[in-house]
Design goal:
Blueprint (H helix, E strand, L loop, with lengths): L9 H11 L15 E5 L2 E4 L4 E4 L2 H4 L8 H11 L13 H13 L4 E7 L2 H18 L9 E5 L8 H6 L3 H4 L10 E3 L16 H16 L3 E6 L3 E2 L5 E2 L4 H11 L3 E5 L23 E4 L11 E6 H6 L18 H16 L2 H20 L5 E7 L2 E9 L4 E2 L6 H11 L2 E2 L6 E4 L7 H17 L2
C-alpha cells in the first residue's frame, strides 16, 4: 500500500485498518471496521461522531466509564513523576501502594502480589508459581506436576493458559504444542447431563471432581477455574455451592486452588471478587481486565504467605519469571484511582441496582422470544443463549451467525455488543445508568425482531 499523509477520512482509515492491523479474534477477510475516536462514560464515539453504548465494557474491562476524571487525573499526576521503572529488583510508590491495597481487598490470606501485563500472563504466573511451590516447600512433592481444569475453560491465549483452556475452536489447533491437563466436567446450570437436576447438580459435579482428585491428587499441583462464571465458554454459570465445594475438596486432597478472576473480578458479579459469594479464599488469585478500571494493561497474581515462603532462600528458589512493564506506575496509578472510585461512587450499589433492573427487563422483554433458550445472570454479567429449539435446547447452526446478526442490528439502536457465538452478552461498565440498561435491552429486542 502507498502512504498518504493528508488528513485521513473514514474510508482511508478503514482501508488501512483492514490492511495493516491484524485484529484479535477477528476473521480479517470479513472484517468491517468500526473506528472509535473518543469515549465518555459508557458512550463510545466513532470517527464520524456516531454514538454507541459500550455494552460489553470494551470486552469486559471498563469499570467506571471512559475518561473518568479521577482516573485521568491520577494517570496525569503519575506521568509528571515517572512513566515507567522496572520491577526487576526495584520498585515505585504506586505499585507498592497497589500491592498493599490488593492484599486488603482480596480474600483472606492473599498477601503477595506479582504484577504482569495481561490476564493470560497472570495465569501463566499462577501456574508456574504452583508448580515451583511443590518443588521447594519444606516437604517437597515434585511429582505434583500437572493441573486440573474445567472443560471449556478459557484462561487466555499464551501456550500455558491455552493448555489449561478447553474451548475447542480456540485451542484445538495448538494441541501438539500444549502440556497435558486433567479435565473435569464443566458445571453448567442450563445443560445438565442425563439424570442431573437443578437440585442435585452441585452434588453431581462435585462428586465427579472428587473421583478425579481421589485418583490423581498425587500428581496435581493445582486446580484452576474461573469462579462462578466461565466467560469465553459462553458465560456458563456454576450452580450455587460448587465453588465452596471445590475449595473444600482441593484442601482435602492437598491440591492448590487458582482462581482466575480476570473476567469476574472488580465488582462484575456484585462483590469485589467472585470468590466472596461463597466465602472462599484460593491459594492463588489472578486479576486483569478491570484492575486498572479498563484503562491500561496490567494484571496481577496474588498468593498466600505459605506459597511466598517457599520461594525465599538461595538462587534457584527465586521465581525466574518477569515482564518488562510489570508493575508499571501509570497502570498502578490508574488502578489505585479505580479502587478509590469504587468507594466514592458506591459502585457496588449501582451494580446491585442495575443488575436487578437488567434481570427484570430481560425477563419481561426477551424471555418469551422463541429463540431465547436461556437467560442467566450474575451481577452485571448477563447471557442470553439463543437456540433453534427451546424445548430441547438444540443449538442454532453457528454458520447462520444469528448472534452476530442480532448484535449488528442492535448497533442501529446505538448499542455496541459482541456475542459469544449465539450467546448474547451484556456486560456494560459498572457505572451504567438505568436508561442505558433499558436501551441495551431494547436494542436486543429490536435485533431479535429483525431476524428473518
Ligand atoms: C477468565 C479469563 N482469564 C484470562 C483471560 C485473558 O486475559 P487477557 O486477554 O488480558 O490476556 C481472559 C480474557 O478474556 C478471561 O476471560
Amino acid at each position: 500500500m502507498t502512504s498518504d499523509h493528508s488528513t485521513p477520512d473514514w474510508e482511508q482509515y478503514a482501508n488501512w485498518d483492514r490492511h495493516y492491523v491484524w485484529h484479535a479474534f477477528t476473521q480479517m477477510r470479513d472484517y468491517q471496521p468500526l473506528i472509535i475516536e473518543s469515549a465518555d462514560g459508557c458512550i463510545l464515539k466513532d470517527i464520524d461522531g456516531n454514538e454507541l453504548i459500550d455494552g460489553v465494557s470494551s470486552v469486559w474491562c471498563n469499570v467506571h466509564g471512559h475518561r473518568h476524571p479521577k482516573i485521568n487525573g491520577a494517570i496525569n499526576n503519575q506521568l509528571n513523576k515517572v512513566a515507567h521503572v522496572t520491577s526487576l529488583g526495584m520498585s515505585n510508590p504506586a505499585s507498592i501502594e497497589l500491592a498493599r491495597r490488593l492484599a486488603e481487598i482480596t480474600p483472606d490470606g492473599l498477601e503477595h502480589t506479582f504484577f504482569s501485563g495481561d490476564g493470560a500472563s497472570s495465569v501463566e504466573v499462577g501456574l508456574k508459581m504452583a508448580f515451583q511451590y511443590w518443588h521447594q516447600r519444606d516437604k517437597p512433592k515434585p511429582q505434583k506436576n500437572t493441573y486440573i481444569a474445567l472443560g471449556s475453560a478459557y484462561h487466555g491465549d499464551t501456550l500455558g493458559s491455552v493448555s489449561v483452556g478447553g474451548v475447542a475452536r480456540f485451542h484445538q489447533m495448538f494441541e501438539p504444542l500444549l502440556f497435558n491437563v486433567i479435565r473435569v466436567e464443566n458445571p453448567n446450570t442450563y445443560r445438565f447431563p442425563a439424570g442431573v437436576t437443578p437440585e442435585n447438580a452441585t452434588q453431581y459435579y462435585l462428586s465427579q471432581l472428587e473421583l478425579t482428585l481421589a485418583e490423581h491428587h498425587e500428581q496435581v499441583a493445582a486446580m484452576i477455574l474461573e469462579p462462578l462464571v466461565q466467560g469465553a465458554a459462553g458465560l456458563v454459570m456454576q450452580p450455587s455451592g460448587y465453588l465452596r465445594g471445590v475449595r473444600d475438596l482441593t484442601r482435602k486432597y492437598d491440591v492448590l486452588l487458582i482462581a482466575d478472576e480476570v473476567a469476574v473480578g472488580f465488582g462484575r458479579t456484585g462483590t469485589m471478587f467472585a470468590c466472596e459469594h461463597e466465602a472462599i479464599s484460593p491459594d492463588i488469585l489472578c486479576m486483569g481486565k478491570g484492575l486498572t478500571g479498563g484503562y491500561l494493561a496490567m494484571s496481577a497474581t496474588t498468593a498466600t504467605t505459605e506459597i511466598w515462603n517457599a520461594f525465599l532462600g538461595e538462587g534457584i528458589k527465586t521465581f525466574y519469571h518477569g515482564h518488562t512493564y510489570a508493575g508499571n506506575p501509570l497502570a498502578a496509578a490508574a488502578a489505585l484511582a479505580s479502587l478509590d472510585v469504587f468507594h466514592e461512587e458506591n459502585t457496588l450499589a449501582n451494580v446491585a441496582e442495575q443488575s436487578q433492573l437488567l434481570c427484570d427487563l430481560l425477563a419481561t422483554r426477551l424471555a418469551k422470544h422463541p429463540l431465547v433458550g436461556d437467560i442467566r445472570q450474575r451481577g452485571l454479567i448477563a447471557a442470553i443463549e439463543l437456540v433453534a429449539d427451546k424445548e430441547n435446547k438444540i443449538p442454532l447452526d453457528p454458520a447462520l451467525g444469528t448472534g452476530s446478526n442480532v448484535c449488528l442490528a442492535a448497533r442501529e439502536k446505538g448499542v455496541w455488543l459482541r456475542p459469544l457465538r449465539d450467546t448474547l452478552v451484556i456486560m456494560p461498565p459498572l457505572s451504567v445508568s438505568s436508561s442505558q440498561i433499558t436501551q441495551i435491552v431494547a436494542s436486543l429486542e429490536y435485533g431479535l425482531n429483525q431476524l428473518k
